[in-house]
Design a protein that fits this description.
With 269 residues, this protein is mainly α. Helices cover 63% and strands 5% of the residues. It has 8 helices and 4 strands. α1 packs parallel to α6 and α5 packs parallel to α8. The two termini are 23 Å apart.
């Protein structure tokens, strides 16, 4: 809802320059309204249904494409891929294939883990010292790192490999891929003045989500190859669902900013 505030100046407060004042105060773009039409609503529902149905019906092809991209990135980074292994995700979905990557273990070189833990704590301390806004978040990451280091040192049997991590990762991302069209359709198709632009943005966000998932998974597996599971909780928290929410918000902010500068009336100077 858009609210216009009309200001009337008493005669005794009028000045020679009072005629230069704007009669109406135009609201900030954060409270400007948009009209939801039947065409936008139908296109949003149709787009979300088609994308969700495509993910469910062709999930095997999406898993294969995701795995191929992940393996390619690992090979480009020089991380050895010893093979691939089939995993189960959810009932009703096809099996997926994830790359098998050698993962460093605490027993093989304990001092490496100690040095990596100290280096990670120092890096987080620098961020905590320099970026005041991120201090609460950094303290949470410090707690995750300390807990993981203690668990690995006390119970080395708690460590797991790349295949187990890939199964955990894909289970979370499949849920995101199935829910993403609903949020994207509501956030982009309904906001855009032209429904076709909203549909295009919704599809692009879905493609980006799958691509970005493979990139993040490859990065996590590369880190595990050199540091084991020491940083896995931090990576899972920062690059998991949180990263999915962040890129969705970034795309939405870009779309709203573009609408505000192109379709909504600019504030008068």
């Amino acid at each position: 809802m858009t609210v216009s505030l009309k200001v009337r100046m008493p005669a005794f407060l009028a000045t020679p320059h009072s005629h230069m004042r704007r009669e109406f105060i135009y609201p900030h773009r954060s409270v400007r309204s948009f009209r939801v039409t039947a065409a936008k609503l139908l296109s949003a529902v149709f787009t979300a249904a088609v994308l969700c149905g495509s993910i469910a019906a062709y999930n095997a092809e999406f898993f294969t494409w995701h795995d191929r991209l992940c393996v390619t990135l690992l090979e480009w980074a020089g991380v050895p891929v010893t093979g691939e292994q089939t995993i189960e995700l959810f009932e009703g979905l096809s099996t997926a294939v994830v790359p098998a990557v050698p993962v460093a273990r605490f027993e093989s070189n304990p001092w490496r883990f100690v040095l990596l833990a100290v280096a990670g704590l120092l890096a987080l301390w620098v961020i905590h010292h320099r970026i005041a806004l991120a201090r609460g978040f950094v303290l949470f990451l410090v707690a995750l790192l300390l807990i993981t280091a203690c668990v690995v040192a006390i119970h080395p049997s708690s460590q797991f490999g790349a295949v187990e991590f890939g199964q955990i990762w894909l289970r979370g991302e499949v849920l995101v891929w199935l829910l993403l069209p609903v949020f994207s359709a509501a956030m982009f198709t309904l906001v855009q003045p032209i429904w076709l632009i909203g549909v295009t943005l919704t599809v692009l966000v879905q493609v980006f989500g799958i691509f970005w998932s493979a990139v993040r998974m490859a990065f996590c597996l590369a880190v595990m190859h050199y540091s084991g599971i020491l940083f896995v909780p931090i990576l899972w928290f920062a690059l998991g669902i949180l990263a999915d929410m962040i890129y969705l918000m970034v795309f939405y902010s870009m779309a709203v900013h573009w609408n505000a500068s192109r379709y909504w009336r600019r504030r008068a100077l």
